[in-house]
Amino acid sequence: MEKPQIDQIDGPAPSELVSTDLVVGDGNEAVAGGMVEVHYVGVDFETGQEFDSSWDRGQSMEFPLNGLIAGWQEGIPGMRVGGRRQLVIPPEKAYGPAGGGHPLSGRTLVFVIDLINAN
């Protein structure tokens, strides 16, 4: 797979997590609390501006799901290796309300995540 382009989403930002499978994988399934290896791109919902990309660093990232933002903890389980999923994550499930001290506080975030490995 290659780095995805994330198109600007029309309409208001959702108030709930929105998960959309772009490619359904057929490998191991990611489980809540498990380890995942992913490639991902993140953009700001309102501006479409990219704020993070493992693709640009040239390497995938491995994480325990427990250590990630709620939107990832809820949005990745059920994905299968080889899959690509888009998550639209409201601030409550990302970095909290505006003024929360994180540069992305108060922002709705869009991620496209490729699941490389899950265990």
Number of strands: 6
Could you give the order of the helices and strands? EEEHEHEE
CATH class: Alpha Beta
The name CATH uses for the topology is Chitinase A, domain 3
The CATH architecture comes to: Roll
Overview of the structural elements:
The protein is globular and about 40 Å long. The chain is 8% helix and 34% strand. Strands 1, 2, 3, 4, 5 and 6 form a six-stranded antiparallel beta sheet that branches. It has one domain (18-118): Chitinase A, domain 3 (Roll). The chain has helices spanning 54-57, 70-75; strands at 18-23, 35-44, 50-53, 61-64, 84-89, 109-118. The chain is mainly beta and 119 residues long. The mean pLDDT is 96. It is an enzyme of class 5 (isomerase).
Element layout with pairings:
Elements: E1 18-23, E2 35-44, E3 50-53, H1 54-57, E4 61-64, H2 70-75, E5 84-89, E6 109-118
Antiparallel strand pairs: 1-5, 2-3, 2-4, 2-6, 5-6
